[in-house]
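Loading example: each entry is read as four labelled lines plus one structure line.
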Amino acid sequence: MPNEPLLTVQSLTVGYGGSTALDSVSISIYPEELLSVVGANGAGKTSLIRSIAGVVRPLDGEIRWRGVDIAGFPPWEICELGIAQVPEGRELFRNLSVEENLLIGGSLKRARARRSGNIQQVYGLFPRLLERRLQAAGTLSGGEQQMLAIGRAIMAEPELIMFDEPSIGLSPSLTRAMFDIVKMLHAKKTTILLVEQNVADSLSIGDRGYVLENGHVVLEGTGAALLTNKEVRRAYLGL
Amino acid sequence: MTSLKGPLINRRVAMKGAVGLAAATMAPWVRAAAPPPVKVGAIMPSSGILAFPGQSCVRGIDLGAKFARERYGVDMTVVHADTQSKPENGRIAADSLIQQGCNVLIGAWDSGATISALQAAEAAKIPMVVHIASANQVTSQGFTQVFRFYPPAATIVRQSLAEMKALVTSVNDPPKGAVVLHLSNTMGTSTATSLDAAWKELDLPVKLLEYIPYDEKARDLSVEVAKAKASGADALVSVTRVNDAIMIIRECIKQAWNPKLIFSPNGNGVPDKAFYDALGKYADGAMSSNLWYNPKGEDARTIVDRFQSTYANEWLDANSGCAFEAVQIVADAVVRARSAVSSEICAALKATDLKPILMYSGPIKFDATGQNTGAAVTVLQAKESKPHVVGPDAIAEYKARYPLVPFEKR
Amino acid sequence: MLTLWGNVLASGILMGLVYGIIALGLTIIFGVIRIVNFAHGAMVVFGLYVGYCAGAWWGIPTIVAAVGAGALLFVFGYGLETLVVKRFVTRPHHIQFILFIGISLVLSGAQLIAFGPDPRPSVSHLSFETIAVGPIRLDLARLQAATVAAVMILALAGFLKYSTFGRFIRAAADNRLGGLMVGLPIPKIYATTFGIGAACAGGAGALISPLFDAQPFLAVDFTLLAFVTVIVGGLGSFVGALVGGLTIGLTEAFAALLFAPSLKSALSYGLLMIVLIVRPRGFFGAKET
Amino acid sequence: MQKKRDALPDRGAVLGCLAAFAVLAMLGGVLNPYLISLLTIVFLFTFIGQSWSIMLGLGGQLSIGHALFVGIGAYSVAVLNIRYGLSPWFGLVVGMALAATIGATLAWLSFRFEVRGIYFALLTIAAAEFSRVVFSGWEFVGGMQGLFFPAQSGPNSFWMLRGDARFYYFVSLAAVLLGVSATALIRLSFLGYVWRAMRDDEDASRALGVRTFLHKILVVSFSGAWAAIGGGLLALVQGSVFPDSIMGMGISVDILVGPIVGGLGTAFGPLIGTLITLPLDHLASAIGNKFGIPGLNNVGYGLALIAAVWLLPDGIWPAIVNSAKSITRLSWFGNLQMEQVKK
């Protein structure tokens, strides 16, 4: 593992109208790493992703991308740096066709030139999307929508993909398929930040992990170490 | 409540009494000198939806004040107030002007603001000369301070139809049927109602075929004109403001309808500059009856020329004309009263018997309700992109042309 | 009789298309930014004045004036969004309402100062001409406006459907948060959309200048007219604007023919209420607000 | 975001409030007629504005067609008084009943079909414009020619609600006091608590057993009846009713400016806001006239409105309260400020 982290979050504080979602959180992600951040509902996981993406403006703290503080950058500039996300609830463009969703994902300057090639790649990865490429995104099934959200992120040729609860609302078999895709992307040397409520599965594939609780980081370590941690086992795995 | 307002009223009454007393004791010197300085408050809708006539009135007032200073030697200051075309502001404007020391008011163009302003005038016993406002109620609601130069709609219509009758009985091939296209607003409805009565009363030899009312905010009159054309009428009687007057003529041209006569009794709009700007040669021949300046009056030429040199891009129209005349009525009263005290001006206004300065009218006299009994209309016809007086005969600049030249032959 | 009916039908259709084009700008802005531009009417009147100046001062044909007015208002709308409206996009409706009332007052006041209250007629031969198709007479000014409306809608639809930026606009309209997450330049998209909406209002204003004489306080009437049109058709939909315009145009035409003309606006407001109550999103409105 | 009911006001706050009104009442005895007329209109618009403010600030329903209710009230008073010589009090009661019924019907129809948010606002415009056109064509109520009250002569009569300018000053001031008390009482009452809960989260309050459908109808109908009283008084003060002016878009817009600028849903916001905006409008108009540039007032007023919503998003009154809170006993008034209205 190289020494320089790709992304460092330093004492990040995020709040909405008086209530605090993240309180002085610090994490770092190293290149080509699969980092799992787990926590219960309302622990601040989504706030973490959204503030890295620039959708939510942090109250305090630093977000360093290759050493540059990007906190407060607008989302489109952050995307242009190579940070993509597969958001919670997918946030697709429901009235646009599958192909249009992908085209929009690939409209960033960093990837625009190779857009048509990338589309073929996504179709190769998810043949179902090719079948439905002219269908409106809103008419797809849950699993297909998740594929599209991932495909849209891939179109940006990101260096870091952030997954926000990719397993939510999916059947166990689809969930497994989803984690397989995450692993596959990881194998292709993409850095991944995986945020999950599904503690067991995500920690088991993660190189390292953090546990968030009420806006604080309470534990950190390798995925395997966390899985065997007594507290984690009691609080999250019901063991 | 009474205890709170008691002292103030007493003080006001006392003050007024003192002024009156002073005037009375000073009388010997004052009477010999020029009329005292007087402050005139003008309430007009200078902004808002009625800004068009409102600003036109403001021009008439300003020119009228200049003229009155020279003619009567009255040291007259005009203070303007804007109602923003909202009735509730009439009273505020009036009170504001009274507060600024105005001895007499002129206004307020629309009946709503006029009534509202009259309440303030009534309370403060400040006379108000209503230059324009056509609702009957302005003089029928018991206000004692009102002096209305403008005649009620019924009077205008009866006089207009009398003129129209004179015209159609004197020409060959008179029109057989008429259709009435009228606005459904205050002015339009009252005019149309009077029209119906006066038409029967005067027994016009033209058959009234149909009434077609339309909304003030109409954006399109094509169907209305198509209906009028389909009625088989060969005379168009219209009651309009300027925008719809233009729209109607445009539609007549587009639908190739060539009535022999186009006549607008109480015709706002047809004598307006915009009508001619919009229609050019197609405006010619349209007739309207209106309060208008007397082209043969002694001072008319001078006043019109002065207006033209002051406001190069505007016309002296009915609005500015009536406002001008209202200022002269006030000046005349001030001279006769030799006083700037409102009650004395009011008394003098009651005794007005003035030969009109600019407008065509009989002698201006106010009856017990405050209505000018001398008001009279003129008939105008458009010729070479200007309205000209064609009736009554005594003041006509030209003889009315009949029938109209079909639009496509112009 | 048949001729009368034919003419009324033709006039209703053409006027309906004119209403449609007047309303287009309102619907575009709502569709993407989800704000109701209550200053829409003032922008239409802005276009009317451009049409007036072009015709009366420089003798420029209406259609050229419309392009000019469109360009001018695009810049105005783009600037207005960037400087002011942007800050109000996420604010409650009533705050936006006051904002646009303020903007509308400023525009109307400026027009009153610049041109005075007199109606300003555009001097165009179109104001007086018709072409005859059999016994039916088609109003040339309306025909021109309707044709341009059709072309404009096709062009806009094409732009939105096939160009990259058009796709961005549709995506932003569809899901603003999703747009932010994939890095769409939302401020630029919103400003451009507002510009396009304003340009449509201005262009429409110039196009209809042979039909309506410019006056500052027509703004409220045009705003209300545009509302009626787009709500009947469906706020946010292009086709809706046209269908709404046609519905209103035909209703008004036949109401004027069959009932009292002065009640025709009551009829269109009545229709509007029924549509709002029974089908609040209009004929073609987007499902989700 | 406070969800608990407002604390009861302490005696000092109530006394302070009464003192303010006493000062206004005393001013009624000494001010010149111009200020009296101006303030009368300010109070009437405040009173109508309060009704509008209740509907949005506490009930969460945006109306841009409040002129409908104002017009109904004005016409009820005018028709019964002018046509039948009945006391305006009857007119006010009839107007309230009519406006409440119309409001309830409109609300019932809209909420039954899930018309909400901006669509409800647009529906109120349509309803107001529809009735404006209908009243324009309705001969019985005077049509476009309107109805006129006879000139006031003789002593002030509380029974006939006719009197001089000062009389109307006190009547409208009393109305505002009534409005302030009503707003404060509703806020403190269970009803106000329910309405605000419903405004903030309709689904949640329904889940808690609030019959939101009924309450929404209640808010609209209550606010409509209130506005109708204001309309009746306005008709008496201006001496005439015309459909265009009393039921037009102009009234709907004019009444909501004050409350928004002053502070929505608060007891004092509408008063403070209208006290600032309406005289400002008149001042701008006077300045425009002085320089002979009509239209300047529209530009100035428009800019002021933009500035107000830009700089003071919650309104002037909450801003005053927040800055005064720490030093005075105004804390109770602080409770009266509006929580952010949700979209």
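The mean pLDDT of chain A is 89.
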